[in-house]
């Protein structure tokens, strides 16, 4: 499985500022957790992120249109 | 001390006679920000906002917290999108019945479909609006940024640019002024919603020219946060560095379409 840790970091660096308030932040953490990626309080990955996990995060953030836009923008660099 | 945040009840005066009427749209990580300008017993609303009741009711409440809406004699719509223009037919029930509606010439053909009572007065680059005690707005066209009929409005008295979508950003909080995260919040929004780097460059250089000739003390976009004078150079630089139109590249790659570098 390919290492997608850098892509995940880039994605969180973009989504973090778009999800700053309580409810948005909780939803983002919930989606990341559901993908199997472990993160610290600043959304940094704890350990390696696989490409499959990153894909699950990207699919998960589709729930919010603006997150989907941001994810697509970031993922263009890793496609 | 200047306020740092806004709420659902009160307009915030962000410069002499200029009131922020912002409405948070937390579900969409978004905010709509109309502005009210009051001078000498007359008032102007710029980009009055959405027709959705949960948005319009907030805007009307905020206007009423400052003035009797009947002194609003001018409504300016800087392009035709419904998030900023759909409220016009609702607002006109509360304001001066002889109010005038203004928009860029190229946007008029679309704005007529909101069925506002007056026919929109078309504006061109360099046109002015004088109201109240001589307060003067100058209109600068920013074509294709992001519609052919897009413009910004400059208040000569306070050196304020009402920038419409330009310098807007995705934000889910209620901060008034651009903070450490705003460059990303702005880049994600503008990077996705703008298609032409050339059009963006023109708009940025037009604002730089305005800054050189008259000065800009603050930029007030229709979404996201306002940019104070000291941060304006950094945001202009961020604008110049912005990549736009990425969806075209994504889809072209998907279908193996090779595009000539034209923009």
Topology:
The complex is a heterodimer of chains A (79) and B (263).
Chain A: H1 5-18, H2 22-34, H3 51-60, H4 65-75
Helix pairs in contact in A: 1-4
Chain B: E1 12-15, E2 18-20, E3 23-25, E4 30-32, E5 35-39, E6 42-46, H1 53-64, E7 72-76, H2 82-85, H3 88-91, E8 100-104, H4 108-111, E9 121-123, E10 128-131, E11 135-141, E12 151-155, E13 160-164, H5 182-193, H6 197-213, E14 218-221, E15 227-228, H7 232-241, H8 246-255
Parallel strand pairs in B: 6-7, 7-8, 8-9, 13-14
Antiparallel strand pairs in B: 1-2, 2-5, 3-4, 5-6, 10-11, 11-12, 12-13, 14-15
Helix fraction of chain A, binned, reads 55-70%
DSSP, total strands of chain B: 15
User: What gap, in angstroms, lies between the N and C termini of chain B?
Assistant: 45 Å
Query: H/E series of chain B, N to C?
Result: EEEEEEHEHHEHEEEEEHHEEHH
Extended strand count of chain A: 0
* Unreliable spans of chain B: none
The biggest chain-chain interface is: A-B, 20 and 20 residues
Give the C-alpha Rg of chain B. Answer: 18 Å
Taking the alpha carbons of the first and last residues of chain A, their distance comes to 15 Å
Number of helices of chain A: 4
Q: Sum up the overall morphology of chain A in one term.
A: globular
Oligomer: heterodimer
Helix content of chain B: 25-40%
Q: What percentage of amino acids of chain A are in beta strands?
A: under 5%
Main beta-sheet annotation of chain B: 7 strands, mixed
Could you give a quick summary of the protein structure above?
The complex is a heterodimer of chains A (79) and B (263). Chain A is an all-alpha fold and 79 residues long.
Description:
The complex is a heterodimer of chains A (79) and B (263). Chain A is mostly helical and 79 residues long. Helices cover 61% and strands 0% of the residues of chain A. Chain A has 4 helices and no strands. In chain A, α1 (5-18) runs antiparallel to α4. The longest helix of chain A is centred in the first third of the chain and has 14 residues, at 5-18. Chain B is globular and about 55 Å long. The interface between A and B is medium-sized, with 20 and 20 residues.
């Amino acid at each position: 499985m390919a290492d997608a840790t850098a892509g995940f970091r880039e994605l969180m660096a973009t989504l973090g500022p778009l999800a700053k308030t309580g409810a948005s932040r909780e939803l983002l953490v919930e989606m990341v957790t559901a993908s199997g990626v472990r993160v610290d309080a600043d959304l940094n990955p704890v350990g390696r992120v696989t490409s499959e996990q990153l894909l699950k995060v990207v699919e998960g953030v589709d729930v919010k249109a603006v997150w989907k836009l941001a994810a697509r923008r970031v993922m263009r660099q890793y496609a | 001390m200047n306020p740092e945040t806004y709420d659902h009840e009160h307009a915030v005066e962000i410069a002499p006679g200029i009131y922020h009427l912002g409405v948070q749209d937390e579900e969409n990580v978004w905010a709509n920000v109309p502005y009210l300008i009051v001078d000498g017993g007359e008032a102007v609303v710029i980009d009055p906002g959405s027709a959705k009741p949960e948005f319009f009711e907030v805007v009307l409440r905020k206007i009423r917290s400052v003035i009797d809406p009947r002194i609003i004699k001018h409504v300016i719509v800087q392009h035709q999108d419904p998030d900023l223009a759909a409220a016009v037919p609702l607002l006109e029930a509360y304001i001066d019945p002889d109010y005038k509606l203004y928009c860029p010439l190229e946007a008029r053909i679309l704005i007529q479909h909101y069925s506002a009572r007056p026919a929109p007065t078309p504006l061109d680059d360099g046109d002015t609006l004088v109201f109240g005690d001589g307060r003067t707005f100058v209109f600068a066209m920013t074509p294709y940024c992001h519609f052919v009929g897009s413009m910004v409005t400059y208040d000569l008295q306070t050196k304020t640019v009402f920038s419409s979508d330009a310098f807007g950003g995705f934000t889910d909080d209620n901060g008034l002024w651009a903070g450490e995260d705003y460059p990303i919040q702005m880049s994600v929004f503008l990077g996705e919603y703008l298609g032409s780097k050339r059009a963006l460059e023109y708009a940025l250089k037009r604002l730089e020219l305005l800054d050189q000739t008259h000065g800009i003390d603050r930029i007030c976009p229709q979404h996201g946060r306002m940019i104070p004078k000291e941060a304006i150079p950094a945001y202009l630089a961020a604008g110049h560095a912005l990549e736009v139109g990425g969806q075209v590249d994504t889809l072209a790659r998907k279908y193996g379409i090779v595009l000539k570098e034209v923009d």
